[in-house]
Amino acid sequence: MGIPMGEFDLIRRYFTRPTPRAVLGVGDDCALLQPRPGMQLAISSDMLVEGRHFLSTVSPAALGHKALAVNLSDLAACGAQPLAFTLALALPRADAAWLEPFSQGLLALADAHGCELVGGDTTQGPLNICITVFGEVPPGQALLRSGAQAGDDLYVSGTLGDARLALEVFRGTLSLPEAVFAQARARLETPTPRMALGLALRGIATAAADVSDGLLGDLGHILRASGVAAVIDTSIAMQLIAAGADTLCADGRFDVKKILACVLAGGDDYELVFTAPVAARQAVQAAAAQAQTRVTRIGQIEAASGAPAVRLVDAAGAPVLRQFASFDHFA
Fold first, then answer.
1. Could you give the dihedral angle defined by the CA atoms of residues 111, 118, 128 and 53, in that order, rounded to the nearest 10 degrees?
2. What are the binding residues?
3. Above 70 in pLDDT, residue 328?
């Protein structure tokens, strides 16, 4: 049995640290932030609830990492540079064996991106983590969902679908070779926020969003905000799964539909989906190289003839008549 900890002991021990960039950090009723002159604040919040967003078996260090990563991914989609964040944490009990690795995973990612923990709240209750992150971006340079134009290319970063594979293994609905599962599990539990790419795409991308609930769902936000439609080449999308579409199909437990479901609607990928003019193809590749992040052109933006929608086609341009539903918290 460890030494009992009160709320403020817990905060001092695990979550109080110097904040050289913030005017005032943990310890007062409010933190004080000062963006650089002429910059705008970008702010986003994400909540992770046990049983809904993560399994009870996830390691505390991985959970700390992911809790901040999903918020940084929102800043990346906006093209914003991280500044600081707050942490609201509900815990069943003050357990040092859990808090130590959780805080280490959280703060290691924070340090990697120069994002300071400046405040928050702790309380007793079911495990629930809510982070609000603050970033800065020059006026007029934020990447928004509303700028896509008909004729733009459609891109995604990194790989898609592997997090969903890992989730299905945990649910017991499929099995994977050990090496494939390890890779997929890392994508589910410790995603990489595409900060460098988001910054590099400022002035190049016309619209962007992070892929958290599934590619089709998050692309849909761009289409609705921009009043456009899109077409996706599923033969290219099939190759976005890091586990390897050919390997999975050869295994016999997967077919094209299952793989496409993971890629197009799997969720928990935390990649960027973005649009850019055809004339910017070289600039997009230069931004990807600068950010050391793979980007793939998967389709094109079209004029909307009704409600904004996504057409799925094969390599020959023929329609792929399949329905895929992205994650919805209340569906």
1. -40
2. 29, 44-46, 53, 74, 120-121, 145, 210, 212-213, 268, 327
3. no
